[in-house]
Amino acid sequence: MLGDTGGTPMPRGTGVPPVRLSVHSRADFRQWEPDRPIPRFTFSRRPHQPVGGFRRRTGTGIARTIDATTNDIFMHGQEILSTLRNLNARRVVALLIRHAERFPIVDAADPTQAELTPAGRTAAETLGVRLEGFSRLRLFHSPVKRCQQTAECIARGADSAGLAVTLVGPQDPLGIDYILDLAEAGRLAALHGDHFVRLWFSGQIPARVIRPAAEIAAEKLAYLTARLDDDAGLGRLDIHLSHDWNTIILRELMLGVRHEEAGWLDYLDGVAFEPKPGALRAVYRDRTVTRTLPWRFEAAP
Question: What DSSP state is assigned to residue 106?
C-alpha cells in the first residue's frame, strides 16, 4: 500500500491496465520528431500475468523485439530482479538504478528534458509488480522528471501487487548538479561518446566542467549509507532512481566494473547494497565486494 508517513499518498491500484508499447528501431529514434507518427503494437495482460521471454541486451539501444503470438517482449529490469533474488529480503537492501527508457536527448545543454517512453513506463511498472520477498518498499528519485516518472510507475506496479510503498520523493544526491557546465559537458560527451566517462574518471575533464568522479562517488555512497541506516524497519527495499553516470561511478570505483568490458549501463539496471557491521556489501551481477566504511575512493586509471 502507499501513503506511509513521510511519503506521498497514492490511490490504491486496482491492477495494471492494458498497455501500449512503442516499437521502433534505433534509426526511428534518430529521426524522431514530435509530430511524426510512431508505429505501435498493443497487447493486454492481467495484473499479475508475467511477460515471458526476457532477452538480455547490453548497451543503450532502444529497439524492442515483440512476438505477436507469444506476447514475448524484452523488458528492462530483469537483471536487477535476478540480483534481488540472491539477497536477504528479511533485512534491508538498497538499489541504485538507472531510470527507465527515455526519449533521446535533443539538447545536450539541457539533458533534463527527456522523459520516459511508453515502453519505459511499462517496464518500470512491470518491475514494481515483480518485486518479491520484501515487506515494504521506499522509492527515492533524482529531481529530474524521468526519474520521478520511473519511481511513480514502479510504485503503481508494486502497489497493485500488494506491497507497502512509500514514495519519498526527490533527493539532490541522486541528481546531476555535480555537472557544473552542462553545455560544455554535453559538447564533450557528444565529441567523445562513451569514452567521455573514461576521461572524466581519470581526471582529464576540467573540474570547472564536472567535479572529480572520486568526490562524487564518496558523496553518493555517504547518501546511500545514511538511508540504509534510517530507522524504517527490516524487510525493506529502498530503490534510488538516478542516472547512468551516477550508477556507473559506483559500479566502477567500488566494484571495479569498467563500462569498456561490461557494456554501458542499461535502463533499470544498477548496483545493490546490503549493510554489514562496519561495512557495506555491493553487488553487480556476479561481482560482489564488501568495503569497510568509510571507504576512500581513488580516481580510476
Answer: S
- Backbone phi, psi, residue 97, to 5°: -130, 160
**Beta-carbon contacts of residue 81 (< 8 Å; ≥ 6 apart):** 127, 130, 131
List, for residues 152-164, the tens digit of each pLDDT value: 999 999 999 999 9
Task: Return the C-alpha cell found at 102.
Answer: 527515455
pLDDT tens profile 223-247: 999 999 998 788 899 999 999 999 9
SS3 for 290? strand
Can you tell me the distance from the alpha carbon of 98 to that of 107, in angstroms, rounded to the nearest whole number?
A: 20
- What is the spatial distance between Cα 68 and Cα 51, in angstroms, rounded to a whole number? 12
Whether cis (ω within 30° of 0) applies to the bond prior to 294 is yes
What's the CA gap between 148 and 160, in Å, rounded?
Answer: 18
Residue 205, CB half-sphere, CA atoms under 13 Å: how many?
Answer: 29
What is the rounded distance in angstroms from the CA atom of residue 146 to the CA atom of residue 121? 10
pTM value is 0.75
Based on the number of CB atoms within 10 Å of its own CB, is 138 exposed (0-12), middle (13-18) or buried (19 or more)?
buried
Contact (Cβ atoms closer than 8 angstroms) between residue 169 and residue 9 = no
Q: Give the integer Cα–Cα distance in Å for 31 and 92.
A: 44
All domains of the chain in start order, with CATH: 75-292 (3.40.50.1240)
Helix (H, G, I), strand (E, B) or coil at 216: helix
